């Protein structure tokens, strides 16, 4: 069943207002341009993680029937993480694997943009190597944590230090 006409827009603008007036710690997002379904933002690497000091820009695309289907988040910089696609060149960004963004797994229309971003940011301190996008990184996380930590810090230094929300260097 399709969302009632106008309901999705009201929800999107409410989410945008929350992100403007009361954003979650370490997260920022806003509607990009005229299309309320296209957002940009960034997540700051938590201080207590190997991603500390990093600024990780992303795009967020809300589907036409949001909130009944989950949005798509794509980071605009490489991140060494088992749940974030980082290998190869991806002109549309690097996808995220988290249950709450999967329609038939953990998604609920109750999730708002601010809650989604908090969950994604929590991956920076608590990766889920048992359900990875990057098998080799997950294996390394589980079997050689020191090596994983070193590489994650190197990626953060190389790709995310000095970045701003639109993905350009400062």
Descriptors:
170 residues, alpha+beta, 5-stranded antiparallel β-sheet, 5 strands, 29% helix, globular, disordered N terminus, disordered C terminus, ATP-binding
Molecular structure report:
The protein has 170 residues and is an alpha+beta fold. It has one domain: Roll (Ubiquitin Conjugating Enzyme). Helices cover 29% and strands 15% of the residues. It is built from 4 helices and 5 strands; from the N terminus they run αβββββααα. Strands 1-2-3-4-5 form a 5-stranded antiparallel beta sheet. The longest helix is centred in the last third of the chain and has 16 residues. It starts with 6 loop residues before the first helix and ends in a 10-residue tail after the last helix. The N terminus and C terminus are likely disordered.
List the helices and strands and how they pair.
Layout: H1 7-21, E1 27-31, E2 38-44, E3 55-61, E4 72-75, E5 94-95, H2 113-122, H3 135-143, H4 145-160
Helix pairs in contact: 3-4
What's the number of structural domains?
A: 1
Strand content: 5-15%
- Strand neighbour order, sheet with most strands: 1-2-3-4-5
Structural class: alpha+beta
Reported for the largest beta sheet, the result is: 5 strands, antiparallel
As a whole number of angstroms, the C-alpha radius of gyration is 16 Å
CATH class: Alpha Beta
Q: How far apart are the first and last residues' alpha carbons, in Å?
A: 45 Å
Order of helices and strands: HEEEEEHHH
Instruction: Kindly report the CATH topology.
Output: Ubiquitin Conjugating Enzyme
Inertia-based shape: globular
Q: Would you tell me the overall average pLDDT?
A: 89
Low-confidence stretches: 1-5, 165-170
Q: What is the CATH architecture descriptor? A: Roll
Number of beta strands: 5
What would you give as the CATH superfamily?
Answer: Ubiquitin Conjugating Enzyme
Discrete helix count: 4
Task: Give the helix proportion (percent range).
Answer: 25-40%
Organism: Heterodermia speciosa
Pfam families: UQ_con
Region (Disordered): 1-23
InterPro entries: UBC, UBQ-conjugating_enzyme/RWD
């Amino acid at each position: 069943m399709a969302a009632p006409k106008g309901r999705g827009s009201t929800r999107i603008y409410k989410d945008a207002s929350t992100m403007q007036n009361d954003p979650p710690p370490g997260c920022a997002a806003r509607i990009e341009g005229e299309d309320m379904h296209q957002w940009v933002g960034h997540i700051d690497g938590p201080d207590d993680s190997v991603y500390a000091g990093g600024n990780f820009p992303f795009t967020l695309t809300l589907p036409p029937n949001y909130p009944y289907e989950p949005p798509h988040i794509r980071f605009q910089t490489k991140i060494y993480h088992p749940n974030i696609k980082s290998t190869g060149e991806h002109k549309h960004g690097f996808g995220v694997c988290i249950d709450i963004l999967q329609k038939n797994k953990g998604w609920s229309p109750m999730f708002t943009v601010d809650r989604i971003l908090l969950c994604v940011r929590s991956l920076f301190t608590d990766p889920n190597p048992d359900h990875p996008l990057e098998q080799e990184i997950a294996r390394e996380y589980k079997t050689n944590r020191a090596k994983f930590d070193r590489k994650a810090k190197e990626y953060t230094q190389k790709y995310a230090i000095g970045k701003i929300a639109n993905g350009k260097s400062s």
